[in-house]
From TrEMBL:
Protein name per the record: ATPase components
Region span, Disordered: 35-55
Length: 119
């Protein structure tokens, strides 16, 4: 695994580290949330907060933007679909714009499933 990391260019190494930090839940200085303080279930489905897509955006920033927009979705469920897409970009050089388009589709599909659970 470290051999793969060493083969990456400096920019890709930084992108991979930023992605690992994202997956780890951001900096370790973040205080842990108490287990007993889960928010109450909303009375109706929540609406995404639209955050416009910048003209030039990294894949990692797109994941953060979409996570913030679709704050009501289960991030663990999304991880199963978003992490392979990010890997395609970071490790295999798939174009950022193409990956971000797919990420937006994944978040929208999960949101539609969220809405269906309210029906």
């Amino acid at each position: 695994m470290t051999e793969l990391f060493r083969e990456l260019g400096e920019a890709d190494r930084h992108a991979l580290i930023r992605y690992a930090e994202f997956l780890a839940g951001q900096p370790a200085t973040r205080p842990a949330l108490p287990v007993a303080t889960e928010p109450a279930e909303p009375l109706s489905p929540e609406t995404p907060k639209p955050i416009p897509r910048p003209e030039s955006e990294s894949v990692i920033k797109a994941v953060k933007r979409l996570s913030e927009s679709y704050y009501m979705l289960d991030k663990n469920k999304l991880l199963n679909e978003t992490s392979p897409l990010v890997t395609e970009h970071v490790m295999y050089g798939k174009a950022a714009e193409e990956v971000i388009d797919r990420l937006e589709t994944v978040f929208e599909e999960h949101y539609q499933a969220y809405l269906e659970r309210w029906s």
